[in-house]
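User: Protein folding is very new to me. Would you mind checking the protein record under this note? It all follows right here:
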Amino acid sequence: MARIKALNPEETTGKTKELFDIVKSKMGMVPNMMRTLGNSPAVLNAYLGFNAGLNYSSLGAN
């Protein structure tokens, strides 16, 4: 079964490096899930945007 490789943040370039740097500045590290999403900078960027949007929302009990 093929697996998607988790990237090493120290070896990335371009948009992926920019996004990893943002994550690392906020969390102090780049979690494995985000290292894997980094294979597609568009997907990682969308995930981070979605996550940021959730900070301004809430779910009711109903």
